[in-house]
Amino acid sequence: PNRLIANSLLFIIFLKTILMNEVCEINQNSCKITKYRYIFYDVNPPEGFNLRRDVYMRFAIFAHKLKNTELSNFKLVLPPWTNLYHWKKKVSTQIPWSHFFDLKSLKRFSPVIEMYEFFDEVNYKFTKTKIDEVYVLQHFREMFQTGNFEDKMLIEDCIRKPKTNFYYYNNITSDNIKCLSFHGYASDLKKILKPSNAQTILFDHAEVALHDRFGDNIYWKARRSMRFSNELKRFAAVFRSKYLNSSDLADGTILPDDWEAETGKRTAKGGPYLSVHLRRRDFAIGRTKDVPNIEEAASQIIELLRKLNLNVVFIATDATIKEYEQLERLLSDYKVHRFFGVESLTDGAVAIIDQIICSHAQYFVGTHESTFTFRIQEEREIMGFPEHTTFNRLCGDTCEKPSIWRIVY
Ligand code: GFB
Fold first, then answer.
1. How far is the CA of 372 from the centre of ligand 1 (A)?
2. What angle do CA 161, 163, 166 make, to 5 degrees?
3. What is the pLDDT of residues 353-387, one digit of tens each?
4. Residue 230 Cα, ligand 1 centroid: separation in angstroms?
5. 152: helix, coil or strand?
6. Nearest residue CA, atom 15 of ligand 1?
7. Residue 72: Cβ within 10 Å count
8. Ligand 1 atom closest to Cα of 371?
9. Which among 288, 287, 292, 290 has a CA at the least distance from the CA of 303?
10. Order of strands across the sheet with 169-173?
11. DSSP per position, 176-224
């Protein structure tokens, strides 16, 4: 009878194993059985932080829509942040999303987890993770030549040699990498998940997938859930109070603790300063028609300060110190502030603090077609500023009015 019991137990364990997939390389001591499956994604390495935030939203919406379907056991694993092209101060390890964002808030919208939570869930002991299936998204070769933009996907030869390690971890690899020519919405990738038994599926070059619907209420829910971490908000609050005479109470920018409780009142007043996002570096070289030089920027800022009857301006910029000092000299009749950060802050954190400070100003003017500016505009829409104080740009030779991306609830 003991042998019978032992055999039955073994059989139950065997059944459980095939019903619930097993992650990580077969190393029985380090693997744990879990009922979850995991979507990973990664983005073209040179892309900046704020475009990556947009790609996140496309995939968070994809994962959000899987809830309450037969694929509801999928979680979306957040790609840790590594050194980005625009970050001058190098970071030595992968940075989790909680460094920048409020994880609880993200999780209220979509079943997302940090990479380390994934490792925990599968009891991964840092040997080697092999992703079951990797799809490197690429554009159809002929799409731009023929102008045929039909939604479609097809496994094809790789246009570029795919990478075999992911997220700069040399122990996250895959033996099953395919290139997927793709034209469609992020949620169309469900067609890959459906027939698959894989427990881990990674989409590389995720930026190729488009937003399901740009600017609808689901887009804005995903966007509203991207609240910044409390630590970064505190840094911004201290700076606003110390230099800009600005606080949420006085500015009318208090939001409920939970983004789901936001109702969309347009009553924000903002702090008594003008905020400017002046994008330089690659924009100043490659987009000279659309962005002003420093003298032109200064004269446009002065004109605005006069019009608004303000004498304080906050400048968020990636300009060099030399350019910034030139701007400061040209604005010497006014109080000019910039957040220089402190040693302990990463470049990404400083950029977010800049965005928070910009988004709380009475009036904002940004840079044409910069995703950094777009994210500030969205933040202001969420806080409920009048539109005319938000959708403004510095002019180059061109000065077309920016599109208004109005919030929808
Ligand atoms: O965020 P991002 O995608 O915006 O990339 P764009 C620009 C990066 O430059 C930011 C830094 O993530 C910051 O690291 N940066 C820019 C700033 N402006 C500021 C600022 O005011 N303050 C601080 N602290 N940092 C896209 C890039 O940039 O432009 C693409 O994503 C490409 O890779 C394209 O270069 C031309 O949309 O402005």
1. 6
2. 165
3. 999 999 999 999 999 999 999 999 999 999 999 99
4. 22
5. strand
6. 318
7. 12
8. 37
9. 292
10. 129-130, 169-173, 165-166
11. -EEEEEEESBGGGGHHHHTT---SEEEEESGGGSBPSSTTSHHHHHHHH
Q: Are 40 and 131 in contact (CB under 8 A)?
A: yes
Q: Which two tokens stand for residue 365?
A: 């003017």
Confirm if 207 and 136 have CB atoms less than 8 A apart: no
Report CA-CA distances (Å) from 192 to 41, 62, 182: 14, 12, 12
Please state, in angstroms and rounded to a whole number, the distance separating the CA atoms of residues 121 and 108.
19
Beginning with the edge strand found earlier in the chain, give each strand of the sheet holding 312-317 in spatial order: 335-337, 312-317, 271-278, 361-365
Q: How many distinct helices (H) and strands (E) make up the chain? A: 14, 14
Distance 48 CA to ligand 1 centre (A): 6
- CA atoms of 361 and 346, how far apart (whole Å): 24
- What is the per-residue pLDDT across 266-299, written as a single tens digit (0 to 9) for each? 999 999 999 999 999 999 999 999 999 999 999 9
Q: How high is the ipTM of this complex?
A: 0.97
Please state, in angstroms and rounded to a whole number, the distance separating the CA atoms of residues 57 and 212. 10
Give yes or no for residue 290 CB within 6 A of ligand 1.
no
- DSSP letters for 281-343: HHHHHH-TTTS--HHHHHHHHHHHHHHHT--EEEEEE---HHHHHHHHHHTTTSEEE-----T
